[in-house]
Amino acid sequence: MTPASISVLYRWLSFGVFLLGISVPYFWLEGSMWTKVTWGVKLNLEFHIGYLFLRWLSLYAHRRISRRGPVAANHARQVLMIFSWLVMILSVFALVDMVNNDLKSRHYVNLAYSMTNITVFLAAYSVFLTMKAKPREPEQPQP
Q1: Torsion over CA: 137, 141, 142, 143 (sign)
Q2: Are 24 and 31 in contact (CB under 8 A)?
Q3: In this structure, what DSSP letter does residue 113 have?
Q4: Are 115 and 20 in contact, with CB atoms under 8 Å apart?
């Protein structure tokens, strides 16, 4: 996978989450129309904020730190790679825990919120691939 293919996958998943945000509340949620609309909006916001915030903020931080020189850029790249691995691992644990709790409590409607964990994983993986693709610049000796 490449960051471009992850972006395409994100767009397709966005369409799927949009459909989930419309169909799940309409068919399976009890309550007023306001409850159904807020459920769908909350699902979509969590999905998009999870991906966009993690991906854009990480790349922005790397770009800002890279201005300080090649040594700082290399350290920032290494830190972001470790950070992205931690986020991927934690999002998998959160996904398993969320699915387990929803199945035990029989709140099947809340399984749609697992899409947020999937998109956080994709964003972290995209950051990892972007940082991995950046060439390491040799450290320059300090005078």
Answers
A1: negative
A2: no
A3: G
A4: yes
CA–CA gap between residue 84 and residue 19 (Å, rounded): 29
pTM, whole model, 2 decimals?
0.82
pLDDT at 86: 96
CA 48 – CA 60 distance, rounded (Å)? 17
Separation of alpha carbons 6 and 24, rounded Å: 25
Distance (Å, whole) CA 75 – CA 62 = 10
Do 122 and 50 touch, CB atoms closer than 8 A? no
pLDDT tens sequence across 3-38: 888 889 999 999 998 998 888 888 777 888 888 888
